[in-house]
Amino acid sequence: MMNSQISKLALRRLLGAIGGDSDDLEELREDYLGIAPILAQRLAFAHAQGDRETLKITAHEFKSNARDFGADAVADLCEALERNTAAGTEIDQNAIDDILRAEEEARVSLANIDLSDV
Q1: Torsion from C-alpha of 118, 105, 86, 89, nearest 10 degrees
Q2: Secondary structure of the chain: what % helix, strand, coil (to 5)?
Q3: Residue 26 Cα distances to 87, 101, 106, 113, angstroms
Q4: Is 8-113 assigned to CATH 1.20.120?
Q5: Alpha-carbon distance 34 to 24, whole Å?
Q6: Is 39 in contact with 61 (CB distance < 8 Å)?
Q7: How far apart are CA 62 and CA 75, in angstroms?
């Protein structure tokens, strides 16, 4: 099953980077599934508090994690947030809401991918 939320190519790259062990990939996936909603909530909280530094740092961390797991929509949104925060651009709530939605969709998609098919 091809999933539009997750890039299997990215998962294949990650599998290669960790030496091809599918058990290790499963462990990393579980780690991501646990950390992604925490990072999303950290973004929402930092935005609500007006904490631009935490917003920028968390967007960068989330972008990297999402990119590794093929959650390209999340990574792209976080990259834009990181860039806009660094540039001093005003961040509106819609940008945060978009990340929260994309994170949930990607997390559900990643959880349902059969890693033996990667």
Answers
A1: 150
A2: 80, 0, 20
A3: 37, 24, 16, 11
A4: yes
A5: 15
A6: yes
A7: 7
Domain edges within the chain: 8-113
As a whole-number percent, the residues of the chain with pLDDT over 70 amount to: 97
* 10 close to 69: Cβ distance less than 8 angstroms: yes
* Span 58-98, pLDDT tens digits: 999 999 999 999 999 999 999 999 999 999 999 999 999 99
C-alpha 9/C-alpha 93 separation (Å) is 32
Which residue matches tokens 């960790």? 18
| Whole-angstrom Cα Rg for the chain | 14
* pLDDT confidence band for 2 (50 / 70 / 90): very low
SS3 assignment, position 100 = helix
Token code pair at residue 102 = 């994309």
Q: For residue 60, which amino acid is it?
A: H
